[in-house]
Please model this.
Amino acid sequence: MEADDDEYVRPQVSISYLQDLLISEYKLKIINYAELNGHEDRNYRIFCEETESTEHKSDFSQDQCESVCTRNSCSAIQTGVCSKYEYVVKVMDLVHSENFSSRSERIQMQMKVQDHLLDCGFVCPKVVPSSSGSVVQRFVTSEDSVHYLTYMTKYIHGSTLFDITPLSTETLYEVGSLLAQLHCSLKDAVIPSLELKSASVWALENAFKIKDFVSKAELDAGEQSLVSAVLDHFAQNVLAQMTELPHGVIHGDFHDENILILGRRENNRITENLVSNSDQVVHIRSKYAAIDFADISYSPLVFDLAISASYFMMSHTRPDFIEIVGHFLCGYFMVRRPTPKEVRSLFASICAAFCREVVLAKHSYLEQSRSNSYLITAVDAGLRQLKEIWRIGQGDVMTVWSGIWERYGLTLENWCEEIVI
Model:
């Protein structure tokens, strides 16, 4: 999803334009491609061959191609054509051509964050500059003069957590630890002269904007009333004290389709491509990859935790969806201990994150003429779960989570006596 333009329009671009772009800017020719899921941008996994000398080569073997292409319904297997050059191209509609400078600057900021994480041992996308050295490309269609912005990264082999169900409590714990490690690492990131604040309606600090979309999301009167009550509660109990919450660079979209478990997938099981390592930090950073950093911002850290927790609940619709997230939260807290205000704001922030996804995803789905079913994958489940978690209430939900945390040796008293549920 795009981070900074509420008038965003999903790109309508043909592969022939991408072909022209890659030949002219990267000296690469597309021989096969597959479109990946996306909220508003277009994301293409492409297989290429070089038209001139290029340094951007990958360790891409024929058997890897067969395994991955089959999973993503790529035509490369049917044609018998695979490539050692494999990338992801993201295409964004500029809406207005004058947006190019600000969007380009934001993408370069995003790449600085990813480069910092790569230097710290995390696995995340590595940008591929053009043959002229530029990161962001701009092109205009000849037919309708629409302005598009694109950039390219190396493809990372692995399976999304969404494809692995049900997720084990161990995996959820490790992914929580991964998010905490990202936060701790990004605390030391140096990103000069680039503004990380987000004006996007998707950013939780701008949750008040969601009310403008409620009437357009085809929710019934009871659902609209619930969303309004949740957002009012969030504004009064979290946003009003937001400056007192620890801030940092957050991912903003850390969910099961933006987290890869690395390795080969066989018979719905993952064979990890790592060696045994007693260092848990190195183990987790080697086991998982985080992708799609388009929504990074300088925001309260607990908002990232809340967004991710809401997604994990929506994606896994088992009756114990509340308990499941307790393991994810514990993995995070074992690496980075929360402040009392963060613990108190967690419940309201998670409920607001539910509203964010339910309302905005449903609105985008309708705006796109119901053509992008990916947008509503979790909307129905999200509504049911929001109603349930709101009915149960903060005290009882926190009691459930506290019981899980105690199994790992964590209690609220360990953190601060000031915490009151």
Notes: The two ends are 34 Å apart (CA to CA).
